[in-house]
């Protein structure tokens, strides 16, 4: 893939100051997305109870994940082809607008639609942030930037549950989305004025056919698993089978298109790269177990322990503290040593240990035990999530950074969607049966149990007679804890895959520098000093003018043709890496 020829203004100067300025825009976007997730997960039981959709609550998570999953490869490929700045701004705007729609939703399925639109923006924020970091920071230095990102997730872990709980307990759940409006506006303004990245023009035809059939296959996959896991349909239902057939047909057509198209949205050559395949498989299996567990823990905490939304949200804090701590530690350690192999192994082992421990959850489990379980779970995730992305980006050609990053995340989110749909269906099915027994024991008919499954809110639980209240709490505990056993095999597979992950040298060149779109390191500092000296003296030399226009222009210049990257000095090239020559 090539980009347009270099303009006269010259490449962007990646000085340390400019890197941190660009990074501030990424932090603003990540804060918007991560804060929303922690607020909504805390408020979800109340939201579905008020809108009347407890039996369909998996769709709140599934719709967001489905939309996020579909657009990930699109953002990744389009970012490689067209540049990432305008796409990042679009993602922020879309996410913020969808938050308004969620706040004003008056029925459950309308809320789900706007939640899906949020996912269309959230997918861009996630992928583009990761790809932009790879553009401006070499792989061997990228670990030090995991600290501020970990700080953002830590801030969200504290502020999100507090805000979500406060909104639910003292205001209305709609405020969980109103709060995104000012945050989104601020994030957009920060990104607009600080995200100085080059724009490009596509030199090859965009793979529209691949986009369409990948989206169809992904949608059919999610509906297939959702309808198959529901008691009113099942795996032999004609509608379920139709979605399964549609998934297979769309996937087959997608592969045929990708084999023939000039610039595929997911290059099949990536799957000849053993590091990419291994890392992606780790993400897929981990996604199935991780997201399925996380999707229902807040509900378990509120219903099974009888805590408020605010308290249940704060009980998730140990998980985020563990994740933040190990993410920061592993990032700094990788920067210092240049090795990464052991961290996914350690992470998978910790997640398995935590999941085994969580199978013992019951209505009588002390709160401190739940907090300890979540801390271990989060610590394991922190060792894996960022490291796997770094490994993938380091193993592919520099003009495929966005594509590889999005493809890796895509398959992780496919795993997450499958996990939430399949194991969520198991949870709700068990819950319905357990509530029927509970209500029958209290002398109530089955229809009362069905109504409770659909509309029961945590605040209503305390108003019920004590025997019925205890029975409902036990039903929630007995429905969720056994599901954790079904997640463990997928986590064991992730551990085995991590054991076979290859260790290769980390690149010492940022993606934009390797593509000839920017100048980095000491050379960038020298040119920036010349530019500032020229401005101070009122003159502009040829050397200074070559680097002064790009840093000050929000859109930045188009980068030079990547075919010229091979003429760079040896000091700007990455270490020898056989996987970087992956074909398309």
UniProtKB/TrEMBL annotation:
Matches recorded under SUPFAM superfamilies: MFS general substrate transporter (SSF103473)
Major facilitator superfamily (MFS) profile domain boundaries: 22-506
Keyword Repressor: no
UniProt record similarity statement: Belongs to the major facilitator superfamily. TCR/Tet family.
One cellular component term from this protein's GO annotations in UniProt: plasma membrane
Domain of life: Bacteria
Origin organism lineage: Bacteria, Bacillati, Actinomycetota, Actinomycetes, Micrococcales
Cited Pfam families: MFS_1
NCBIfam families to which the protein is assigned, alphabetical: efflux_EmrB
Localization, UniProt: Cell membrane
Signal peptide residues on this chain, from the entry's feature table: none
Membrane topology of the entry: Multi-pass membrane protein
Protein name (Swiss-Prot/TrEMBL): MFS transporter
């Amino acid at each position: 893939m090539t980009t347009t020829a270099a303009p006269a203004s010259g490449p962007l100067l990646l000085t340390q100051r400019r890197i941190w300025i660009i990074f501030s825009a990424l932090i603003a976007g990540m804060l918007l997305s991560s804060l929303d997730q922690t607020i909504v997960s805390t408020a979800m039981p109340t939201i579905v109870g008020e809108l009347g959709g407890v039996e369909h609550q998996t769709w709140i998570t599934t719709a967001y994940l489905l939309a996020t999953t579909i657009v990930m490869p699109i953002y990744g490929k389009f970012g490689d082809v067209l540049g990432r700045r305008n796409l990042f701004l679009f993602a922020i705007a879309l996410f913020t607008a969808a938050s308004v729609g969620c706040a004003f939703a008056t029925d459950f399925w309308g809320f789900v639609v706007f939640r899906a639109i949020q996912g269309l923006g959230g997918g861009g924020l996630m992928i583009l942030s990761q790809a932009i970091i790879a553009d401006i920071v070499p792989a061997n230095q990228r670990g030090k930037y995991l600290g501020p990102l970990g700080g953002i997730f830590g801030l969200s872990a504290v502020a999100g549950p507090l805000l979500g709980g406060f909104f639910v307990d003292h205001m209305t759940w709609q405020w969980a989305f109103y709060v995104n409006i000012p945050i989104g506006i601020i994030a957009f303004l920060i990104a607009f004025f600080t995200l100085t990245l080059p724009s490009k023009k596509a030199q090859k035809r965009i793979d529209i056919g691949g986009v369409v059939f990948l989206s169809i296959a992904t949608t059919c996959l999610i509906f297939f698993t959702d309808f198959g896991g529901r008691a009113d349909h099942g795996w032999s239902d004609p509608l379920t089978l139709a979605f399964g057939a549609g998934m297979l047909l769309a996937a087959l057509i997608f592969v045929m298109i990708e084999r023939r198209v000039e610039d595929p949205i997911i290059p099949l050559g990536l799957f000849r790269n053993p590091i990419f395949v291994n890392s992606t498989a780790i993400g897929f299996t981990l996604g199935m177990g991780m997201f399925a567990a996380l999707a229902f823990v807040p509900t378990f905490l509120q219903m099974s322990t009888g805590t408020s939304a605010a308290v249940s949200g704060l009980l998730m804090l140990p998980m985020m503290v563990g994740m933040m701590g190990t993410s920061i530690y592993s990032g700094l350690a990788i920067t210092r040593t240049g090795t990464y192999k052991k961290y996914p192994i350690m992470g998978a082992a910790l997640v398995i240990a935590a999941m085994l421990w969580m199978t013992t959850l019951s209505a009588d489990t002390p709160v401190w035990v739940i907090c300890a379980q979540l801390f271990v779970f989060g610590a394991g995730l922190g060792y894996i999530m960022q490291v796997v992305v770094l490994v993938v980006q380091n193993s592919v050609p520099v003009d495929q950074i966005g594509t590889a990053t999005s493809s890796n995340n895509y398959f992780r989110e496919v795993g997450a969607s499958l996990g939430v749909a399949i194991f969520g269906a198991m949870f709700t099915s068990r819950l319905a049966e357990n509530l029927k027994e509970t209500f029958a024991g209290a002398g109530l008919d089955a229809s009362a149990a069905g109504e409770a499954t659909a509309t029961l809110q945590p605040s209503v639980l305390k108003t019920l007679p004590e025997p019925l209240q205890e029975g409902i709490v036990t039903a929630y505990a007995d429905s969720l804890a056994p599901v954790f056993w079904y997640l463990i095999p997928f986590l064991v597979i992730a551990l085995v895959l991590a054991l076979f992950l290859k260790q290769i040298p980390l690149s010492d060149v940022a993606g934009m520098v390797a593509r000839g779109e920017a100048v980095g390191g000491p050379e960038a500092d020298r040119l920036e000093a010349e530019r500032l000296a020229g401005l101070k003296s009122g003159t502009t030399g040829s050397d200074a003018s070559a680097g002064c226009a790009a840093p000050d222009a929000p859109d930045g210049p188009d980068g030079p043709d990547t075919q010229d990257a091979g003429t760079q000095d040896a000091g700007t090239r990455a270490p020898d890496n056989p996987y970087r020559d992956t074909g398309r």
